[in-house]
Structures are given as C-alpha cells and as structure tokens.
Amino acid sequence: MAVIATNEWLEAEIADPVKMCQRAMPDVSDSEDFYHYLKQFGIYQSENKAKETFEKLQKQNVWEKVDKYYQLYRKKWQGPKVDIYIFPLNEANSFFKHGLKGRAGISMPHKIFLFLTEALDEKYWESLFIHEYHHAARMIRNNKSTEDYTLLDSLVFEGLAEQTALLYCGEEYSMSWQKKFTERELRYYWQRYYKPNLTLKKKDRMHDDLLFGRKRIPQMMGYAQGVNLVNGYLDNNKLTVTESLRISSDQLLIENSFIDGKEFK
Questions:
Q1: Which of 250-259 are b and which e, b meaning 16 or more Cβ less than 10 Å from the residue's Cβ?
Q2: Sheet holding 103-108, edge to edge
Q3: Residue 85 CA to chain centroid, in angstroms?
Q4: Is the torsion defined by CA of 264, 204, 91, 25 positive or negative?
Q5: Residue 130 and residue 230: Cα distance in Å, rounded?
Q6: Which residues are in the DUF2268 domain (predicted)?
Q7: 139 near 160, Cβ under 8 Å?
Q8: What radius of gyration, in Å, describes the C-alpha atoms of the chain?
Q9: Is the pLDDT reported for residue 261 higher than 70?
Q10: 133-158: average pLDDT
Q11: Cα–Cα distance between 252 and 237 in angstroms, integer?
C-alpha cells in the first residue's frame, strides 16, 4: 500500500471520473453513486479544468511528494499502511478553492482520497495529508464500524486531526475554523445544538448538518466545535500524537476547560 499511480489513470482516462472511482473502489456496487459522493468532498467535475490542474500537479511532482509525507509520518506515528489516491480538485467551487485553500480530502479505513490544485506553498499539501492520514490511522486503531460513529466521534476526529496538522505545519497552514466564530457563538451553539446531540449516529441526517454546518448551523461550525473540544482537553491534559490515534472520544470530555467553562443561555 502507498500512493497509487492515479497520474497514469488520469493520463489515459481523465474524461471519465466514474471509471477512476471504479478503479479506486472496485467493491462498490455503484461507481457513479460513489463519484457523486466524492463530489461533495471536492473531486473534479470539469474535464477541461481538470486537465489543466493535472498538468500543474505533474510539474510539481505531487505524487512523489505525497509519498514522502506518507513514509515520514507513517514512521513517526508507527502508522498503518493505506492506499492514497490523488485527483484534481473541483476548482469551480469557491469553497473548495478558497475556503479550503485549494485542497480537500476524505479518508476511510486503509484509503485516503486527496483532491488538490497546484500549490504556491507545498506545506498546504503536507498539512492536508497529515489531517487525512490522522483520520485513517485513528479509524484503524479504533476498529469501529462507520455506522456506529456518533457526532461526538466526528467532532473529536476533526479536532484531533486539525491539532496534529497545526503541530507539524503551524497556524499559517491550519484552517483554524474556531477563529471564525466568537467564544460566545461557540458556546451558544455547543449548548443549544451540539451537547444535546453528541450520541447522534452518523446515519442520521442531522449528524452532517451539525458537522458541516447546514440549515440553522453556520458553515463548518462542527469542525470549530471539534477544535475547541480538543483544545479544552489539552488545557488540562497532555496528549501525544500516537496517543491521539487511540484515545476514546468520551475521554476528551473529562477535565475539559471548554465544557467546564461558562455556559450561555
């Protein structure tokens, strides 16, 4: 397992992203449905723009560089083997291009998908890789079925992954979602929406509404809550990266300065 040569796939069949998904996930019964799922997370849609982005990624040797990140952090964390699939990002989407700083991804046990554009600073790629590899490693270490994940699990996943990327790459390359909201806003939404729904299962539609910020919830509020939960735990506790890969989500609620702080009615 390592970085898969999706550059060769793209060279031959960039016009058929569904075929790319079929090759990456041959066990999925409906590859077109899986492609539509990946579109939510940033995989390319326009063939012409994707060709342009692909050429730039090739010139920057992104496949070789991501493989170096993989070898480095797998050794540092004694991490698991995973397959890594790199595809062009959907740059027509303003949130992916600007809100996420031109990089996006999604992780599964033993598989990571990275959606990238050319980088003026390759540290942005490294930061995304750390975030997604942390997800994959934590999934494998926890050995929990995806259907059994709760909202608390998801918040902790995002908070720990972002904290790890911050540790290695610095704040400039971090998304810092929590800084987009005031402390009062964060505490209000925690008390009103998140705290009562921590046991909500991933299959419940409200789970993603809260995680990504939809309907009455500001965009990416769930990620901000996850970062605050982790920071609140770290105020009173020490946690190494390797420990963060296996610590239970419930443990982060103990001696947590964010949770124990002032509540807003």
A1: eebbeebebb
A2: 83-88, 111-116, 103-108
A3: 14
A4: positive
A5: 17
A6: 62-253
A7: no
A8: 18
A9: no
A10: 94
A11: 9
Closest CA to 105 of 133, 82, 80: 133
The owner of tokens 């397959």 is: 83
The answer, yes or no, to whether residue 265 has pLDDT greater than 60, is no
- Residue tagged 């705290």 (tokens): 195
Tokens of 5: 């040569």
CA distance 73 to 173: 17
Distances in Å between the Cα of 65 and the Cα atoms of 171, 231, 259 are 21, 30, 39
Q: Does pLDDT of 264 surpass 90?
A: no
Q: Count the neighbouring beta carbons within 10 Å of the beta carbon of residue 42.
A: 27
Q: Are the beta carbons of 48 and 102 closer than 8 angstroms?
A: no
- Structural contact between residues 237 and 255, judged by C-beta atoms closer than 8 angstroms: yes
Helix (H) or strand (E) holding 161: helix 151-169
Give the phi and the psi of residue 198 in degrees, each rounded to 5. Answer: -65, -25
Residues 6 or more apart whose Cβ sits within 8 Å of residue 30: none
Q: How far apart are CA 104 and CA 132, in angstroms?
A: 9
Place of tokens 């990266």: 241
Q: Of the candidates 202, 110, 96, 114, which has an alpha carbon nearest to the alpha carbon of residue 155?
A: 202
Q: What is the pTM of this model?
A: 0.94
Where is 84: in which H helix or E strand? strand 83-88
